[in-house]
Amino acid sequence: MFLKRKFLSAAIALGIIVSAGTVVAKDDHGHSWGYEGTTSATHWGDMKPEYATCKLGKNQSPIDIKGAVAADLDAIKFDYKTSPLKIIDNSHTIQVNYSAGSSITVNGKQYKLVQVHFHQPSEEKVDGKAYPMDAHLVHKSEDGKLAVVTVLLKEGKNNPLLETLWKNIPKQKENEVSVKNANINLAKLLPKSQGYYAFTGSLTTPPCSEEVTWMVLNTPVEMSKSQIGTFGKYYNNNARPVQPLNDRSLKVSK
């Protein structure tokens, strides 16, 4: 996401990020942004001066992934450990906050895993197609840079990890729950094939801060129709519309 205040404002939006986490932006009157009506994404850039990047930024996320150029991208080295389950409904998504000790390394740089949150439908599209859902795994480097790994989720067989998460969603919003005797490992959410699309972008929630490294795994992971429906009872439209690629490069690992 998003030190704590700065990270929250930038990342927790990443889904933020820092959607690192999803960033829950508030003002004195409650949540100042949303996904529908007068608080929807088309209005974010006008809601607060600090949200101006949402309309003025040229490297915004998510995007429609098409026309990617094959390249020798460095493999993402995942080093995910088991973490106690800490889960929250933050009024924008369901988010799991991860304990210290897990990370990814890419291009020689290490990013620590901070959190994972979910969108329905997927925020990223591939050749114009949205998936039923996606998961944004938010990471942060020692120098404060954010890197988000996206796992695209398609309908298929039941997903044991997501089953554990869904059955422990807190009944009360904005109340993080530490689930007794429950541990998870997000390595179980990753596909076996870990080729990916790479581009620079932003948080997908206000303040839409840019200079976020995005890596979208190009092999989707299955979850059941029932699991998709369960999440949809909480959030069935918490995806920002795709943004123009502009002059950014879009690569895919060979």
Structural class: mainly beta
| Radius of gyration from the alpha-carbon trace, in angstroms | 17 Å
CATH topology: Carbonic Anhydrase II
What CATH architecture do you see? Roll
**How far from one another are the termini?**
29 Å
Query: Number of domains in the coordinates?
Result: 1
Taken as a percent bin, the fraction of beta residues is: 35-45%
Main CATH class:
Alpha Beta
Helix tally equals 5
Poorly predicted regions are 1-30
Main beta sheet strand tally, sense and closure? 13 strands, mixed
What order do the helices and strands follow? HEEHHEEEEEEEEEEEHEEEEHE
Total count of strands: 18
The pLDDT mean sits at 91
Question: Would you give an account of this structure?
Answer:
With 254 residues, the chain is mainly beta. It has a single domain, classed as Roll (Carbonic Anhydrase II). It has helices spanning 4-12, 44-47, 53-56, 160-166, 225-232; strands at residues 26-27, 30-31, 64-65, 69-71, 77-79, 83-89, 94-97, 103-106, 109-119, 125-126, 129-130, 133-141, 146-155, 177-184, 196-202, 210-217, 221-223, 251-253. Strands 4, 5, 6, 7, 8, 9, 12, 13, 14, 15, 16, 17 and 18 form a 13-stranded mixed beta sheet that branches. It has a 3-stranded mixed beta sheet with strand order 3-10-11, with no helix packed on it. A two-stranded antiparallel ribbon has the order 1-2. The longest helix is centred in the N-terminal third of the chain and has 9 residues, at 4-12. It is globular and about 50 Å long. Residues 1-30 have low confidence and may be disordered.
